[in-house]
């Protein structure tokens, strides 16, 4: 009985200490939980403050003028807002620098009318279609807003070199600014012979040409188109490497610039070498009554030259149906000009040739045939000019062999008054 009474106080003390232990442990849990919640609230508030500060900075930068909007990154989504802001500022600086550079370049490179009228280089990268389109452009206002010195375009259709160049050099000497030169030679010609200074750099981009073939007309149109690119060219003369002038430059220049007519030979030839070359397949665009023949060596004004390079009705007919023995170079321009522009045409050529010996080609003149009397006979022929009879009929003559060049350069200054 006494033992049981002694155990009771011990159990009471044990229960008392257990209760205190549980209370302390519970209090510790409460303190840890409260501390954790407090840390979480503080950290969350800090993050919100940082995000608001970055957004405010970005909004302020976006109010700057001319700042481009950057697209949202797709390949690197981990880029921070601070990196995007730095990229925007850098891009803005680059754009401002580039704009200032462009303004400075514009202010120092104004293009005036003089620059616009500067003739393009003879050598270019345009194909035939691009060239003809570019050459067909013309101003609607006929009066020129500047002082203009009209020029004559001398267009040489050759196989290779202009072997009479020394004579032509004497002809052109001292008349710079009044003429332009264009040379269409066979593409196979590599310029192996020394070029005369007056012809240097005057070869246009060319293509193959065959005698009597329609590609000869293509070459003529190519020459016209290149010459039309120079707005000062007002008269256009087609020549060959065997042609010579019969008068000095001032006489020929005055004759052409003051002419009121085009000079394209055109006549109706009822024989087999005239109407006999016509193809009925050319109907309905060209009838046999409209078919004409003439020399290919023409001279024309700027208005007609523009029409020739712009022709998309009659030339395609010749390309399609004038083949073989048709000889398009003797029929295209005579027929086309007679149909469309006969009122302003003299129906004659300014280039003299000798057909007295017959055959498909005119006579060729050798060195032994070149005399003062012979050249004077070519110069003293009467023709109609602007409705009046004059002593100047032909301005040029052909065909002169390469061997004649030394003799021609010797006697021409005396006869032609170079």
From TrEMBL:
Which InterPro entries has this protein been placed in?
BC10-like, Glyco_trans_14
Membrane-spanning segments: 26-47
* Cellular localization per UniProt: Membrane
Chief site of localization: membrane
Source taxonomy lineage? Eukaryota, Viridiplantae, Streptophyta, Embryophyta, Tracheophyta
Q: Which Pfam families match?
A: Branch
| Glycoprotein is among the record's keywords | yes
One GO term in the molecular function aspect is: glycosyltransferase activity
**Keywords for this protein:** Glycoprotein, Glycosyltransferase, Membrane, Transferase, Transmembrane, Transmembrane helix
Q: How does it sit in the membrane?
A: Single-pass type II membrane protein
Q: What is this protein called?
A: Core-2/I-branching beta-1,6-N-acetylglucosaminyltransferase family protein
What organism is listed for this UniProt entry? Answer: Phaseolus vulgaris
